[in-house]
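Notebook p. 47: complex prediction with xylulose-1,5-bisphosphate.
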Amino acid sequence: MLQALIFDVDGTLADTERDGHRPAFNRAFEEAGLDWHWDVALYGELLAVTGGKERMRHYLNCYRPDYRQPADFNDLVIRLHAAKTRHYTEMLATGAIPLRGGVRRLLAEARAAGLRLAIATTTTPANVSALLAHSLSADGESWFEVIGAGDVVPAKKPAPDIYNYVLDRLGLSPNECLAFEDSENGLKSSRGAGLKTVVTVNDYTRDHDFGAAAIVLDRLGDPAMPATVLAGPALNGSCCLDLSTLRKLHAA
Ligand code: XBP
Ligand code: MG
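Predicted complex, structure tokens below:
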């Protein structure tokens, strides 16, 4: 029996990376007087590494071999990341980043049907709270029984740890749940935890390898903006990925 749906956040619930996280990083860099700037294309490459602090270190190692680390480098990374989180959550508070098409519809359908909801993400917990409060609903966080986020597990996606953490807290086995992801790192993580996974692609992830997904779509879809299946079973006349299709995918 399908008991719970477990959602990734960035790229899956909302398109947060290009116009959310990326400018927030750039503002933090500018504010600190650093000449680091991540344009849209570079940021797409940097997304290969999950986690903001890890991403900054990766940038310096691979793109700025000239950079000389100060003695307090670890503190600098932590300070920059805290500033980035402040900029990002302030941006979310203005309602700047809406949920992706069909997300609200599916969450509401699942709640009405008594399915349990959870989150498994690499992003910082404050980012999840801000997105849910400002883009879903004032009580959006309470829609999710378990929120696994950020440094709560040391190994971020593509490691399966965050999904295992969430499954453990839900008290469910992977075959009682479905995961929702947008990226190859995310899919590796969910599959590594044994979860069947729905993928909705975005501009940064369209060309990733999603061979291990149960279905790949351009969005979850709703009547105003229907979903298109990119790989996997057809939606059988429905405009979107609804609960009956989800139950079939889960049972297949
Ligand atoms: C996406 C990420 C995150 C964000 C930045 O995670 O890789 O690192 O880009 O978040 P997911 P922080 O798709 O699993 O939600 O800066 O807070 O780490
Ligand atoms: Mg993601």
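Notes: The longest strand covers residues 116-121. Residues 175 and 195 are 7 Å apart (CA to CA).
Next step: compare against the earlier run before touching the bench.
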